[in-house]
Write a structure and sequence with these properties.
Length: 251
């Protein structure tokens, strides 16, 4: 029970960064260049964590086949879910509104629900691996938690800025991201609880599923906001985020 509570606490901590970013993005009028920069940094951090924490861990546990099967399955599942939600108004859920507008509820009925489900789709894999890693290693991966926390701030920031521009209320925005933070906690608990019943190859495959879904999310929702009509230093910022996460993994 104590480990489940610990997993939930770490998941809630990582997910709370979404709410922090949402408050900043909704209350402040942040220039698009700044939003793009923090999004690029967060993308770099997650890319490094996926490479040197999740994929490396899965490969070390059971070799290449579970990694390939899991990663492709995770990316495919994310892509299918994202396609369904995109048709219902969640295609640009990470957009700040500076480049690509999110639809308002009046423009597309049900888009608010789709945005909420899209945020859940983005956040669950990240939190699940926190609980899974805690169960397997006996201690939470500081790098994974830090990477998810750092990347969640710009995600919440950019998305809430776009929601505000689309006319969604303060209560909706903060309630949504608060609920996603709680869902992150529950995902970490479920990942931790499930790990004990799984064999090493299955744990490796599940870890790879999460990694594949996260990679697909980065490519589909974070990178477009970071790079579209942004300044030429974005690539350098991605590398900076990657190196920060890499340094943490080797500390």
């Amino acid at each position: 029970m104590s480990e489940l509570l610990e997993a939930g606490g770490w998941g809630l901590l990582a997910g709370s960064a979404l709410l922090i970013g949402a408050v900043l993005g909704y209350v402040l009028r942040i220039p698009h260049q700044v939003v793009a920069s923090v999004m690029a940094f967060g993308a770099g951090v997650l890319l490094s964590a996926v490479s040197f924490e999740l994929f490396d861990e899965a490969y070390g546990r059971s070799g290449m086949p579970p990694v390939v099967v899991g990663a492709v399955g995770g990316a495919a599942a994310y892509t299918v879910g994202n396609m369904v939600l995109a048709r219902r108004g969640a295609r640009h859920r990470k957009r700040s509104g500076h480049v690509q507008d999110q639809p308002s509820e009046r423009q597309q009925a049900g888009s608010g629900v789709a945005l909420a489900l899209g945020a859940l789709l983005d956040g669950v894999p990240e939190s699940a691996v926190i609980g899974l890693g805690l169960a397997e290693g006996g201690a939470v991966s500081t790098v994974t938690v830090a990477a998810v926390f750092i990347s969640n701030v710009p995600e919440g920031l950019s998305s809430s800025s776009g929601m505000r521009k689309a006319g969604r209320s303060r209560g909706y925005v903060f309630g949504l991201w608060g609920a996603i933070a709680v869902a992150s906690m529950l995902s970490a608990v479920v990942g931790n609880a499930a790990a004990g019943a799984l064999s090493p190859p299955v744990v490796a495959a599940v870890t790879a599923v999460a990694a594949g879904a996260i990679l697909a999310m980065i490519a589909d929702t974070m990178i477009p906001e970071a790079f579209e009509k942004a300044h030429l230093a974005i690539g350098l910022i991605v590398v900076a985020g990657f190196l920060v996460s890499f340094a943490l993994s080797r500390a």
